[in-house]
Design brief:
Oligomer: single chain
Radius of gyration: 21 Å
Strand content: 15-25%
Number of domains: 1
CATH architecture: 3-Layer(aba) Sandwich
Helix content: 40-55%
Structural class: alpha/beta
């Protein structure tokens, strides 16, 4: 009888702990922003990032992003800023088989990794990769049709200047679709990322990413929905929409048809 009572007490305590975690996970985070690294130059870290990017959860995110992209984009050049190893462009290419694709990344290691990932896929001149920073893009004025970016905004050293650069290189009527974490995410995402970084990646032996505090560093370096709004108001974009989700944000913007 004594043992049964003890077991019942332990079950109740366990259920209460689970309940507290579940309830607390519904509240949004309120943390100061922590600046993250701007690019990955270490070959081992680049390889680890490439490996993580191939995981199913990131494939689902890319699939969701492309689904949203289809609402706006037609037969245009699609330029990915912060392209990393190029997997977003691979997903985009399947839904936009006639579009020219361009990837830009500040990291030479990532540009080379992206080129290698596309080398045997027969894209030819349809795809190209360039090294460049978001606040100093390697394109002439009014030359790009559609800008995309995922999980890159929080890495940009000067996001205001970067948005102005995007506006500069877009053709009149050109568009952008940006996807990133939101720092004011619900705590559930924080718990999941903590588990991924401190348990899952350790078990998988992916230590190079953990050494640079990823993926938690990206979440803590990301912006709140309010901060994104304040940033975009300082840029030439007048036609824009900010869509906040559970733990991420979509930012859509369009350059006016009569803009220079």
């Amino acid at each position: 009888m004594m043992n049964m009572n003890l077991i019942e007490v332990l079950i109740i305590v366990f259920c209460l702990i689970v309940l507290i975690i579940l309830v607390s996970s519904m509240f949004r985070l309120n943390m100061p922003r922590r600046v993250n690294l701007e690019g990955i130059e270490d070959p081992k870290t680049a390889e680890a990032y490439d490996r993580i990017s191939r995981m199913p959860q990131f494939k689902l995110i890319r699939r969701s992003f492309v689904k949203k992209l289809k609402k706006y984009c037609t037969k245009e050049t699609i330029t990915d800023i912060g392209c990393g190893p190029g997997y977003l462009l691979q997903s985009v290419s399947k839904e936009f088989p006639e579009n020219k694709l361009v990837g830009v990344d500040i990291s030479k290691e990532m540009v080379e990794k992206a080129k290698a990932n596309f080398a045997s896929m027969g894209y030819g001149e349809r795809i190209e990769f360039r090294q460049g920073a978001a606040d100093y893009l390697p394109f002439d004025d009014s030359t790009q049709d559609f800008i995309v970016s995922t999980f890159s905004l929080h890495h940009w050293a000067d996001p205001e200047a970067s948005f102005k650069e995007i506006f500069r290189i877009l053709k009149p009527g050109g568009q952008m679709l940006i996807f990133d974490f939101r720092r004011d995410a619900q705590r559930l995402l924080f718990y999941l990322i903590w588990f991924a970084q401190n348990v899952a990646l350790r078990i998988m032996g992916i230590t190079a990413i953990r050494k640079i505090n990823e993926p938690m560093g990206s979440l803590l370096a990301s912006y709140t929905k309010k901060e994104i709004g304040e940033l975009i108001k300082k840029t030439p974009f007048k036609d824009y929409q900010i869509e906040g989700k559970l733990g991420w944000i979509y930012l859509y913007g369009k350059k006016a048809e009569n803009a220079l």
